[in-house]
Amino acid sequence: MSKNAKILLNGLVNENPTFVLLLGMCPTLATTTSAINGLSMGVATTFVLICSNIVISLLRNLIPDKVHIPAYIVVIASFVTVVQLCVSAYMPALNDSLGLFIPLIVVNCIVLGRAESFAAKNGPVASMMDGIGIGLGFTYALTLLGMIRELLGTGKVFDVTIFSEDYGMLVFVLAPGAFIALAYLIAVVNKIRNK
Amino acid sequence: MGYLLIIIAAILVNNIVFSQFLGICPFLGVSKKLDTAYGMSAAVIFVLTLATIVTYLINLLLIKWELEFLQTIVFILVIAALVQLVEIILKKISPALYSALGIFLPLITTNCAVLGVAINVATKNFNAYGLDYNLLTGTIFAFATAVGYGLSLVLFTGVREQLKLADIPEGMQGTPIAILTAGLLAMAFMGFSGVV
Predict the structure, then answer these.
(1) Which residues lie closer than 8 Å to A22 by C-beta, 6 or more apart?
(2) Domain hosting residue B156, numbered range
(3) Which of A23, A70, A177 sits opposite B77 (nearest CB)?
(4) pTM of the prediction?
């Protein structure tokens, strides 16, 4: 397997940010009320992650060591602002449902974590692959959690009815359901990984 | 009366951890011992209130100069600088407090609760409580929210300390059982909904 493909797979499986590294828990819990919300949040974060990884990797020799964290934060915050303005301009409905959590991508520990631990040490191509891998890992975790919560809560997945809404357990759409669904998902992933 | 409603709503009804999902990373990270939970709560209450006051004033400048689109960048930089400043000042004037809060302060920059509340206050209105939107209501809201964070952190840590003695199934050990506990606490906090 080539080096870049390995980096890509790393983010999807071994270093999955949600299930293994347990990073970025706030958007994971808050935006997965439905599958489509989880997917959108994942895509938005992936975009920021890829762009900031590329830029930081290009600038890694120019940024003085003493101010590297503030410099990274400015880069990340710029891309977050781009996403924020695009979403509020073209997808107002999505903007209402994700709300506060779009600007909060800035403080998502995944993005700063990858900048610090990967992009600051590797070239732009490898950093881009790392951004794609980690981003996709985050996106599929959020989508999976969103699907489970939407199915158990309302009987739908991506707005397609699987069973009648009357049998849905509302608690899974509300706050406690987010914690409970995530806890069991992590337990299942742990079980699989330990085999 | 309105102020009391803001405080109750922020601490119990819209608890920042259990109903708004802000600051979950440190919530899971520092909730293994009660001592550290108290330290972290104190640091969050201090920084969050201070950061909200400063960002509120800066937001007025941004609105005056029509630079609202810079809000995210400016807020996060101000918060990061503020945390550094607080750290330096505390080290100089109150070494005792610094050694108690010291290790938690740098962690707070990446605590999304601080940025979340700052943005919330900048965009919120308090009409529901019959109050105007101003520095006082914003500060009270931020302080009460931070107290709510401290309350949930201490409660959660207390439960987690007891969990060490429990016999937990193999796959659920560690994080899964902790998150499940948080879920049950969130369910308890749901009982407050509708109070305000």
Answers:
(1) A186, B28, B175
(2) 2-190
(3) A70
(4) 0.87
